[in-house]
Predict the structure of Shikimate dehydrogenase (NADP(+)).
Amino acid sequence: MSLRIPLAGVIGNPIGHSKSPRMHGHWLARQGIAGHYIPMEVEPADLASVLETLPRAGFAGVNVTIPHKEAALAGARRATPRARAIGAANTLTFLPGGGYEADNTDGYGFHANLAGAAEGWQAQDGPVAVFGAGGAARAILHAMLEAGAPEIRLMNRTRARAEGLATAFGPRVRVLDWGETDAALKDAATVVNTTSLGMAGQPAFDLDLSAMRPGMLATDIVYTPLETPFLQAAARRGAQVVDGLGMLLWQGVPGFNRWFGGDAQVTADLRALMLAP
Ligand code: ATR
């Protein structure tokens, strides 16, 4: 008889800064599961062969991060509708008989974080203003539209990228010019920064937020620092704020539960662990 130790991990390049091993390690310990979650630095040219080898080595699945998210979807035997709609994968589960199913839990993580942290908040509450139109915005738009957001007001420094998302996601997405914050924020219920502005080492978030009002919910995908200048400006104007750390935690939940058969919880002590140096 052989004892099978469940294995999973995260593939990226670079991978040294990934906080996923710490998070999954916490869940494994907390739930008394004798598994391992291993960070792996993989070159793009090696991704396909690594994904062929891992299930033979006993891996149940892996997270994939930059720069592999699109290639991982392209190489999948099956993909969930949300991974297809987002055009990228972050959660791969190996299938019996070879190959893997690709899923994308980023939008789920975004929505679950808001639903968990902001009591009474719903995507249907009103128009959603989104700053930025990169990969993260794509996942967030998909989740918010699925959850019933009536309108997305999207603005991006490079307007063509926002227009590409509007074409992909349909008429509920309205593109505004970068800086048109009064029009974006007017009667918005939810305001989201998906740009890297305000992240440690990046330029400051400098758009005018004077049209923010109490009753709006503001959230940022940046969580270094936790209280970004964008969230501080929103709080000064009376908005409810939810920081971006929870999105990272929640996006990990579906993979953990699938691979390890666990019941991962997003708790205050997990947050504290993730913020520790
Ligand atoms: P992610 O997957 O995190 O969304 P990304 O695809 O590189 O990363 O997108 C980064 C986002 O931050 C984009 O919306 C980008 O705007 P552009 O499409 O114009 O590049 C935005 N961004 C980054 N630096 C910016 C800056 N200095 N000013 C305004 N927007 C910026």
In short: The chain has two domains: 7-105+252-275, 107-243. The chain has a mean pLDDT of 97. The two ends are 41 Å apart (CA to CA). The chain has eleven helices and twelve strands.
